[in-house]
Amino acid sequence: MAVGIFDSGLGGLTVLDAVAKRLPEVPLVYYGDNAHAPYGVRTADDIFDLTTRATERLFDAGCDLVILACNTASAAALRRMQEGWVPQGKRVLGVFVPLIEALTERHWGDNSPPREVGVKHVALFATPATVRSRAFQRELAFRAIGVDVEAQACGGVVDAIEEGDMILADALVRSHVDALKRKMPNPDAAVLGCTHYPLMEEVFQDALGPEVKVFSQASLVAESLADYLERRPEMRGPGTESAFLTTGNPKNVSNRATQFLRRRIEFVAA
Ligand code: DGL
User: Fold this and answer.
1) Residue 92 DSSP class
2) Where does substrate bind (predicted)?
């Protein structure tokens, strides 16, 4: 009954951690494509090829349902995958929709017309590829009207986190928040639209100020997955073992993952 969780690197561990807490009985197979991170500077075709390769590997590991715990892959590849690539009996879901449902105060399956919501000025922090795709704005427009979104492409942050250089990551986050504030001085909400960024959530919150509500995906995705599996229990695949797979150097990736999750994580070669 395993579920697959995919990210270009370490960021999806923020989602894995929340899912493991919410659904402790479900074996989880994680795939980090660390050898090819960051995805945020790649083309959509490249992201599609890498994401489908990883997803295939998770299907082989006994997962019928794969969560793309990567906004960049969700923005650049998911729709194309769902429209013609996902084999019958398998399912691939992204991380955008739970976040946007939370932001627009909706429950799953509420397809009523777009309406006014509480937030008016939203700052979106994401990778260059996610910002370029405008997928966030598109999903938001299906559900809300009158929301002004200012997007900030946060170049370099994923690379710094993957390298374990948290001092550089801190400095980059602060400079991206400054750049955003020059375009939108008073956002009322901020969306961390990359699963690596919850690892820097305190820095984002500190730089934005206490009056800005910061939305990050991990717990929202975990809640939405729990709800999905309740409605579709047959999507728990045949796999019985949890595992951590990486295309990078397993020793280095394990050390960084252990540091981030504050528990011993052992990656093996994908
Ligand atoms: N965690 C990925 C995301 O959510 C990072 C993408 C990247 O590798 O640039 O977008």
Assistant:
1) E
2) 7-8, 39-40, 71-72, 195-196
What CATH class has 97-215?
Answer: alpha beta
Q: Which of 3, 10, 65, 70 is catalytic?
A: 70
Residue 29 has phi, psi (to 5 degrees) of -110, 120
Check whether 40 is labelled as a binding-site residue. Answer: yes
Instruction: Compute the distance from residue 31 Cα to the ligand 1 centre, in Å.
Output: 13
Q: Note the pTM of the prediction, 2 decimals.
A: 0.92
Residues 6+ apart with CB under 8 A from 252: none
Class of 3-94+218-269 per CATH?
Answer: alpha beta
15-36: b (≥16 Cβ within 10 Å) or e: bbbbbbebbeebbbbbbbbbeb
Helices (H) and strands (E) in the chain, counts: 12, 12
User: Taking CB atoms and a 6 Å cutoff, what residues make up the pocket around ligand 1?
Assistant: 7-9, 11, 37-40, 70-72, 127, 130, 158, 194-196
Other C-beta atoms closer than 10 Å to the C-beta of 94 total 23
Domain boundaries for CATH 3.40.50.1860 within the chain: 3-94+218-269, 97-215
DSSP 105: T
